[in-house]
Amino acid sequence: MSTAQSRVENFQHVSIRDIKLGMFVVAVTKPKNDIHFKPGLISSEATFRALRSIGVEEVRIDLSRSKHQTEALLENPESNLAPVDEPEQTELTADEAHEQRQHTKKLYAEAKLLQTKLLDSLKNGETVDIAPLEEMADELVDSIFKNPDAMIYLSRIREKDTYLMKHSLNVGMLLANFGRYLGLSRLVIKELLVGGLLHDTGKIMIPDEILHKPGKLTFDEFEIMKRHVKYGIQFLDKSEGISEVMRTVAANHHERLDGLGYPNGLKGDELCLISRVSTIVDVYDALTADRCYKKGMPSTTAFRILLEGAGTQFDPILVKKFIKCMGVYPVGTLVKLKSNKLALVIERNEESPLKPVVKIIYSVASTCYLNVETIDLSNVTTEEIECAVDHNEYGINVAQFY
Ligand SMILES: [Fe+2]
Q1: Could you say which of 8, 111, 242, 318 has the lowest number of CB atoms within 10 Å?
Q2: Is 102 exposed, middle or buried (CB count within 10 Å of its CB: 0-12, 13-18, 19+)?
Q3: Is this prediction's pTM over 0.70?
Q4: Distance between CA atoms of 179 and 186, rounded to whole angstroms?
């Protein structure tokens, strides 16, 4: 008897509203007409949309052939997931908003501390318990759902901090935010966050003179640097509670669509959605980060580099989605207004990405700080963004304006 014949079928009727990625649809049950339909796995939002567009209201799924969303994501390289609607943000009073900002700041500070401890323990060769990281990830995901801009804002504000700690934390939060935007389940979002926190842990095994070398690495040095992925996986394989999503982030964040990445030179269909998303986020954060020997580039320049690599290094659809998720001017970006003032982006505008909410802080003409004024560019006609600028160029410490 073949495997297919021996499988126990387990049918269930599911409304089109409740269809999830990974479900195996065997038939259309409502409306009962002649809808031409080929049974199969819901492997992307496109399939789901197609069902809806032809008027399907209810389907019968076979649970025995369905996969958990995580499994489907790890196996399926298709990446045409649709962004979810932005969760409704409830209007907060000034006091509540202040309280929420303080909580976010506290949470971020705690996460930095925890990440520092994790890396210190690893350096000392101690066994690491990832349970506290998971707990923290839960709180961070909550915070990202409540106010994605606030958390991402903190991650974009570059302080002179330990690079590895900040990079890991930022990759985790950017991954979680992108996962939320792509409509992934809360569990996968949390695992993406923890995966980000752990993705570069192997770097503690790389000699400092290579890890912190200003300028280009030699061929031999780069070969040594590449080993951080293998070291990281060795560490994860020794740790308990590491999920497939977390492991995939760590294993594949340097793989490229064209097969020219490392350590395994995986390409095309060998790279699942989680791998593709990880590469984009890792490169974005590395490009925008300030290092002791070089200033990070503005988000807009990093977006251009991602777009240049779309189709070769990166999944082109996901690059576009990532830029959309971050906004043309991500929170934390310093912009120059046509009135020759500098302003800090503090809230994206989904409807009109060119008109975010900003804090005006500096007059370029008089080279002096101004009384801080918050304006919603979509509500005024007097101010307009000219371009994004590099805060280093103006010597402005943007962190103090949060
Ligand atoms: Fe890495």
Answers
A1: 8
A2: exposed
A3: yes
A4: 9
CA of 288 to the centre of ligand 1 (A): 15
**Cα 17 to ligand 1 centre (Å):** 38
Distance 337 CA to ligand 1 centre (A): 36
Report the separation in Å between the CA atom of 191 and the middle of ligand 1, taken as the mean of its atom positions. 17
Contact 175, 274 (CB under 8 A): no
pLDDT means over runs of 10, the chain (402 residues): 46 78 79 69 69 78 70 58 46 71 82 85 79 85 77 61 82 93 90 93 89 89 96 88 93 96 94 95 91 78 93 94 88 90 88 87 90 91 87 75 67
- Helix-strand-coil split of the chain, %, nearest 5: 50, 15, 35
Type of residue at 96: E
CA of 226 to the centre of ligand 1 (A): 8
Q: For residue 318, report the distance from its CA to the centre of ligand 1, in Å.
A: 19
C-alpha 293 to ligand 1 mean position (Å):
19
Beta strands in 267-338 (DSSP E): 334-337
**Spatial separation of the C-alpha atoms in residues 6 and 398, rounded to whole Å:** 63
Distance 113 CA to ligand 1 centre (A): 21
User: What's the 317 CA to ligand 1 centre distance in angstroms?
Assistant: 23
Model confidence pLDDT, tens digit, residues 96-138: 777 777 788 888 888 888 888 888 888 787 777 788 888 888 8
The rounded Å distance from CA 229 to ligand 1 centre is 6
Residue 11: φ, ψ to 5°? -90, 150
Domains delineated in the chain: 3-67 (no CATH), 94-326 (1.10.3210.10), 334-401 (no CATH)
152 alpha carbon to ligand 1 midpoint, in Å? 20
Q: What's the CA-to-centroid distance between 202 and ligand 1, angstroms? A: 8
Tell me how far the alpha carbon of residue 264 lies from the centroid of ligand 1, in angstroms: 14
